[in-house]
Amino acid sequence: LHQEKIHVYTPHGHLHELPQGATAVDFAYAASLFLGNHAVGTKINGESKPLSPNDTQEGKANNRRVEFVKQ
């Protein structure tokens, strides 16, 4: 594997090669235009992560979301 590239697999087993520094949104768009257009957050190793940095008002506004979980 090349260090300047990130290799990720979709849940369907498709391999995507992304540039170093790619974000979760980049991966979402690589996997599916629908997924990229509708992504509101990410979970990395089971931990929720924001889509945008929280150090600006714009980033904070972009990260506001509510998740409803049905049991």
Key features of this structure:
single chain; 71 residues; alpha+beta; two-stranded antiparallel sheet; 3 helices; 4 strands; 23% strand
Could you please describe the fold and organization of this structure?
The chain has 71 residues and is an alpha+beta fold. It is built from three helices and four strands, in the order E-E-H-H-E-E-H. The strands form two sheets. Strands 1-2 form a two-stranded antiparallel sheet. It is globular and about 35 Å long. It starts with a strand and ends in an 8-residue tail after the last helix.
- Report how far apart the termini are: 41 Å
Instruction: Enumerate the strands of the largest sheet in spatial order, edge to edge or round the barrel.
Output: 1-2
What shape does the CA trace take?
Answer: globular
- Please report which band the strand proportion falls in: under 5%, 5-15%, 15-25%, 25-35%, 35-45% or over 45%: 15-25%
Average pLDDT reading: 78
The helix count comes to 3
Broad structural category: alpha+beta
Helix-strand topology string: EEHHEEH
Number of strands: 4
Poorly predicted tracts of residues: none
Radius of gyration, CA atoms, in whole angstroms: 14 Å
Helix content: 25-40%
User: What's the story with the biggest beta sheet?
Assistant: 2 strands, antiparallel
